[in-house]
Specification:
This protein is an alpha/beta fold. It has eleven helices and 14 strands. The chain has helices at about 10-30, 35-40, 45-55, 105-110, 150-160, 170-180, 210, 225-230, 255-260, 285-295, 315-325; strands at about 60-70, 70-75, 80-85, 135-140, 165, 185, 195, 200-205, 230-240, 240-245, 265-270, 300, 335, 340-345. Helix 9 (about 255-260) packs parallel to helix 10 (about 285-295). The model is unreliable at about 1-5 (pLDDT under 50).
């Protein structure tokens, strides 16, 4: 028998697979949890930051963007930029903690003990550390999903040195605890009016009863009298129209007073599906009653996007609106928005629902790279 004693060669396919495997292993070895987080979050990167920065607002209009929860960015025709309730945190991240803190507002409100399953359901669409310009930072109240340390730090580092942080006393306390200089903070209460470039910020009453019972002591039998220190609503009066930001307010008949005192074009209300035993968000009925009382032209629900345990379908508002609009002769209509979306007043005043830009406007600029046209 004869044996061939030459050099043995691996099959080419096997060699290629091993080389490819070594390349993949090298990449895998470099990947860490930190690199994943930096590569994937915030989910929109700086896309929305760039959109807002580049937006040229036409005369006679104002533009606004929903940043998530009750976060709102307003930009006027004279490039005044107002941010309200921007927040870039999250909710529950582990099941290890079994009970709410002893005086958590939800424990105070419901008498329940179990940790609530409020996971963040909406993406973070704005990069706080990429903020380049803002003229005023507003907070309606001091609950953690309406005020943000990351955004505060970024504004202090990236923006002009005189940008004010405007909010009720408790919000100012929280900003000071973050390290925002005292001279940058402006404490407001209902009745105050602050001018920021071409825009008036009118401070009005809040009806956030959850905030009212937020305490770190037992308050059974004690009548609270510090709402104005804890929470406020805002009317943002631009040269082109006004926005009513209700923060986390519940429904109140006093909305009718605000509707009589101020000319409101667009109103935003915190909407959600309240779990049994809890009353924290306005219902579809409340949203319509608020709009009617405020005499606004458009009402936009928000806050329903963010907490998994309060998620609600805004189409319920539309369904009820269509059922009642004729018999009650509503002079307003709802607009259903999406997080990260833009709304321009009065350009979009007749729209009922938002849709993200669909793209491909430049289709057929070039001849498609396909084998034959009949495939199209």
């Amino acid at each position: 028998m004869h044996y061939h004693m030459g050099v043995q060669r691996k099959p080419r396919l096997k060699q290629e697979n091993e080389t490819r495997s070594e390349e993949h292993m090298s990449k895998v070895d470099e990947i860490t949890r930190e690199s994943w987080i930096l590569g994937a979050f915030p989910e929109w990167g700086t896309w929305l930051n760039e959109e807002i920065d580049q937006e040229v607002v036409e005369k006679g209009t104002f533009a606004m963007w929903w940043i998530g929860c009750t976060g709102l960015w307003i930009k006027t025709e004279n490039d005044t930029n107002i941010s309200i309730d921007l927040w870039f945190g999250n909710g529950k991240r582990t099941k290890k903690t079994k009970e709410m803190a002893p005086f958590h507002q939800m424990r105070n409100m419901t008498g329940g003990r179990m940790t609530q399953p409020n996971l963040r359901a909406a993406p973070i669409v704005y990069d706080p550390f990429a903020v380049t310009k803002v003229d005023a930072v507003l907070s309606t109240h001091y609950h953690n999903d309406h005020i943000d340390p990351f955004y505060a730090a970024a504004v202090l580092k990236n923006c002009e040195g005189d940008v004010p942080f405007i909010g009720p006393a408790k919000s100012v306390e929280k900003w000071l605890s973050y390290g925002v200089p005292k001279e940058r903070c402006v404490t407001v209460k209902p009745g105050d009016v602050i001018k920021v470039k071409d825009t008036e910020i009118i401070v009005v009453d809040s009806f956030d009863r959850t905030c009212l019972v937020t305490n770190d002591v037992d308050v059974k039998g004690v009548c609270p009298n510090d709402m104005d220190e804890k929470a406020v609503n805002y009317i943002i009066k631009t040269p082109a129209g006004s926005v009513y930001h209700s923060g986390d307010s519940h429904y109140s008949t006093y909305y009718a007073k605000h509707g009589k005192d101020y000319d409101i074009d667009v109103a935003l209300g915190s909407y959600g599906e309240n779990p049994v035993g809890n009353q924290d968000k306005m219902t579809s009925v409340d949203i319509l009653r608020m709009a009617e009382a405020l005499k606004c032209k458009v009402v936009i629900p928000f806050h329903y996007d963010v907490w998994t345990n309060f998620k609600a379908d805004p189409q319920e508002i539309m369904m009820l609106y269509n059922y009642k609009k004729d018999v009650l002769q509503y002079q307003f209509h709802p607009f259903i928005w999406d997080v990260g979306g833009k709304y321009v007043w009065p350009t979009d005043k007749d729209k009922f629902q938002f849709h993200y830009r669909r793209g491909f406007e430049d289709c057929f600029t070039d001849e498609p790279n396909v084998p034959f046209r009949s495939i199209l």
